[in-house]
Amino acid sequence: MKTVTKKKLYEAMFLVDSADAGSDWDGVIGSITKVLKRAKVDIVSIKKWDDRRLAYEIKSFARGTYILCYFRSDGQSNHQIETAVQLSERIIRVLILCVDWMTDEDIEKDTPAIKEEKEKQQRTAAREAAEQAKAGESQAGASAEAEPTEETSPAEAIAAADELPPTEGALEAQATELAQQGESAAEETDESAEAQPKAPADD
After folding, report:
1. What would the mean pLDDT of 47-70 be, rounded to a whole number?
2. b/e sequence 79-113, b meaning 16+ C-beta within 10 Å
């Protein structure tokens, strides 16, 4: 009867070049994923941990990006992962620890990089909200200055309205009013002409 070995939870901290991670993040994650899949482990999560200056140069790199990975394995494939990293041109180092005591909540905790990104998004959202509020106050102030207040005299209100360009609806209303005035004037002229006595014709 074949004995089934229970898989334990492992934590792997991969170190890669920060410049490489910044220019081709998907490619870096793809390289790490390929190493883990070749070792036939069950990947739980992969996420960026942080960017740090190295205490000393490693393979001529002075700054590195740490990528945190959790996976389940029987432990026998860990040596295969370490060997693959040593042969990799993209992954500088890896440190693997057994963390079978960790819970799902521990695994899902935000890393320093994720916390920094969330804080950055919050600052951006707060700045945009402040700019929108300031723009709204400016528009409200401009509207208040354009509209006549209760203390504005009728003459001042008419003068202020005359300074504004007429809208299309106002132009149509003015044209209709002028047409009506013209028709009224024409009718009055016809009525006056009919009311005046005709001059006697010369014999």
Report:
1. 91
2. ebbbebbeebebbbbbebeeeeeeeeeeeeeeeeb
